[in-house]
Amino acid sequence: MAQLWGGRFTKETDKLVYNFNASISYDKRFYRQDIEGSAAHVRMLAKQGILTEQEAEDIDRALQEILADVESGRLEITEEYEDIHSFVEANLIERLGDTGKKLHTGRSRNDQVALDMRLYTRGCLVETDARLKELLTVLLRLMKEHTKTIMPGFTHLQKAQPITLAHHMGAYFEMFKRDRMRLHDIYERMNYCPLGSGALAGTTYPLDREYTAELMHFYGPTANSMDGVSDRDYLIEFLAALSIIMMHLSRFSEEIIIWNSNEYRFVEIDDAYSTGSSIMPQKKNPDIAELVRGKTGRVYGALLSLLTAMKGLPLAYNKDMQEDKELSFDAMDTVGDCITLFTGMLDTIVFHKEAMRKSANNGFTNATDAADYLVKHGVPFRDAHGIIGQIVLKCIEKNIAIDDMSIEELKSFSPVFEEDVFDAISMETCVNTRCTVGAPSEQAMEQEIAAAEAYLKEQAT
What pLDDT score does 6 carry? Predict the structure, then answer.
């Protein structure tokens, strides 16, 4: 297969060098974007009188035929071609002869691949956003269903204070909501068209870059042709956003793995998202959660790889930038799959409410409220803190909860205690007296849920 650039060379490239240089094995997934960009370029060339209307129509028709043939399987993208651009152009020339050779007028592979990567990334970004919205929809449902489901809140993996499952799910709602905001910000910065930048210095042809950008739904053309072909900031930003998404999914997965353990038994993962052991018949393993947690590292790796590849590159295009694809594609695929599978797992999970409440009861999560009770009855906070600490020690010794102590036992630590202390330190009271914005009380959660619902409705318009 003759290279598009072969005229300057007097002998063929070494086969090993050719294979090392070629990108068709992975950039073939660009076929749709490459054809879309070529079709827009041809329409602009005709508008500018650089091609005749008939030539543009013939090229566009042939491009659409190539697209249809690839998608139907009639035409295979093989590795005899150096890259996806060579594949499309070679097949166009085969169908149209000399007319097909005019496709590349006013264009370089540098701005062509920059366009393809930007189009592909933009599409993946939109798809990732849609997947996150599905996850947020599941989280909102759980928030609505579990405003009364009491569970322990943790710090340092130690039981801290009672909260509700709705409150816990609400924390993840905010995380994934911020992820969508990051994606939106990236879209706003990246949605400019590099086509027409040429190799680096534009072209002498009277191209209408604004028109080409409009045809492909960009906000406009990139402002500088050198930056147009050498910018990968948008991809680095996207990989950073994907890494943060995976970090959030990994944290959530870690909690589900813990909650699924025999020691906690907070959740029952649906059979469809679990596997068994080859030797231990009693096992039901949280494999999806573990794989999501494990795959986070490979997405981080893609980000670090591209940052490293770009860090020493002078302007403008360098072949190093071909390394922006393989790991990025893998990261995009990985995150998409992880969000979808995690959403399915979360949507089908069963929460064991009684186990959660019992865990909150047995973990002294109402100790802070017991101290607050003393403070409200005139005991200085530092003294109250010490009194409750002594009570907790006694409870540990007797293997009971604070609520299990009699009023006489409590009074032996402080005469301030009265019968109303038991109501003050009940799980319901501990939760529902926390009414500040963002707190776990039913009143506060109603506001949080309403805001979450409004956010999702707004995003639907």
Answer: 53
Contacts of residue 243, defined as CB under 8 A and 6 or more positions apart, other chains included, come to: 296, 299, 300, 303
Distance CA 250, CA 126 (A): 22
pLDDT at residue 418 is higher than 90: yes
Distance of alpha carbon 452 from alpha carbon 131, whole angstroms: 17
Nearest by Cα to 83 from 167, 24, 17: 24
Question: Residue 290 is which amino acid?
Answer: E
The rounded distance, in Å, linking the Cα atoms of 120 and 220 is 17
Q: Rounded CA gap, 420 and 92, in Å?
A: 85
- Strand (E) or helix (H) holding 62: helix 53-72
d(CA 295, CA 337): 10
* pLDDT for 18 beyond 80: no
For residue 196, count other CB atoms closer than 10 A to its CB. Answer: 26
Give the number of C-alpha atoms closer than 13 A to the C-alpha of residue 448, restricted to the C-beta side.
28
Dihedral over alpha carbons 389, 390, 396, 401 (to 10 degrees): -70
Catalytic positions, written as ranges: 156, 277
Are the CB atoms for 96 and 59 separated by under 8 Å?
Answer: yes
The proportion of the chain whose per-residue pLDDT surpasses 70, expressed as a percent, equals 95
The secondary element (H helix, E strand) that includes residue 267 is: strand 267-268
In this structure, the strands spanning 150-155 and 158-164 are antiparallel
- End-to-end CA distance of the chain: give it in Å, rounded: 50
**Residue found under tokens 């166009």:** 92
Query: For the CA atoms of the chain, what is the radius of gyration?
Result: 30
Residues in Cβ contact with 276 at an 8 Å cutoff, skipping those fewer than 6 apart:
283, 284, 285
pLDDT at 5: 45
What's the pTM value of the predicted model, to 2 decimals? 0.92
DSSP string covering 152-217: EEEETTEEEEEEEHHHHHHHHHHHHHHHHHHHHHHHHHH--B-TT-TTTT--SS---HHHHHHHTT
Q: What is the pLDDT of residues 363-411, one digit of tens each?
A: 899 999 999 999 999 999 999 999 999 999 999 999 999 999 999 999 9
Q: Which of 205, 195, 192, 226 is nearest to 38 (CA)?
A: 195
Tens of pLDDT, residues 330-358: 999 999 999 999 999 999 999 999 999 99
Pairwise CA distance, residues 17 & 78, whole Å = 18
